[in-house]
Amino acid sequence: MVPHGDLDVHPEDLKLSNQRKYIDQGQNPMPIYTAVRHEIPLEEEEQKQEPDSKASKEKVKEKAKKEAWFQWIEMHPYEVGCEEFGAWIPTWSLGRPFDKGRNQILDTGAAIPEIRQSLLLGIWGSAFTATLSHYFHEIRPLLIGLTGFGGLAELLEEKNDDLVKIHPIDPATIPNWAYGMKEVLPSSCPESVFKNDHLQLMDAGMSNNLPIYPLLREGRDVDVVIAFDASADIRKENWLSVVDGYATQRGIKTWPVGTGWPKKTADPEKNVQDLTVAQASTPAQATAKVAEAKQEMEGKISLAETTESATPDTTQSAPPDTTKSTLPSPQPDPDELTTCNIWVGTKAS
Hints:
The model is unreliable at 44-49 and 317-332 (pLDDT under 50). A six-stranded antiparallel sheet has the order 4-3-2-1-8-7. It has a two-stranded antiparallel ribbon with strand order 5-6. It has eleven helices and eight strands. It is an alpha+beta fold and 349 residues long. The chain starts with 32 loop residues before the first strand and ends in a 40-residue tail after the last helix. A hairpin with a 4-residue loop joins strand 3 (79-82) and strand 4. The protein is globular and about 80 Å long. 32% of the residues lie in helices and 10% in strands.
């Protein structure tokens, strides 16, 4: 939604709110950009305890380990907000300071302009602001085999609950539109949000490489989710299954729990082999693979129809054994990566 070529780009193209002209009439799908805020309540809770109470500090740390989580922030041409905050602002006001739900005007009488997409692109793709835990898991495959790495890896895994809270590079900050609204917002909004006039936001991949959560929240009423996972760690991480926790927490009964690939029990070497076979290096090869998959599916359908038509007429002979099906199973092995994996939920309550 930004023109190609330096000479075609104008200042108004760099405002997220201006993308409305491309979707107002339904001519394009509405883009939803995501970022996350890392809520770590440890520091806030420690301030409430006695400074010399070692037992109290340990109790607080244990509580913080369970409570640290990522909050998803949605940004689209119309609104910016967070489901947990229950607070939303018009996109054109993103970047203005807020206090108790009202935007603050500068002493000059002017309002701060909307944050440009150049900064937002940096936030949406700020993988470098990851935690130490994320850093370790990224470089771990490169270090396997080094002398002494096994002991080091075991030590770091034991400290993972601490590493997951440390960001070597600070995330970007933007004015907090929920600042000072403690008496108004729901209990799901943490105390720290009311007290900090800025929010630290980072790449949503810190929580999940598949930004599915904004599609599932109440009121969006999405019927079908089509997810393409091109993550670098697709060989070993099942990001689709990570959504299970969110669906359970939110009571979403339509989500097909236990989906995704690869499974935890899958052989890593077989995962690599399956991905290699599935990949296409040229457009012509991709077209050929699609045609081959289509032909294979048509063959399965034809076989099923032929087998069904060859079933004896049960009105003139003894009833067949109904404990076994004569038709081939139309479903692939759920642990296999096939041409197109489809997982279907249900709308039954």
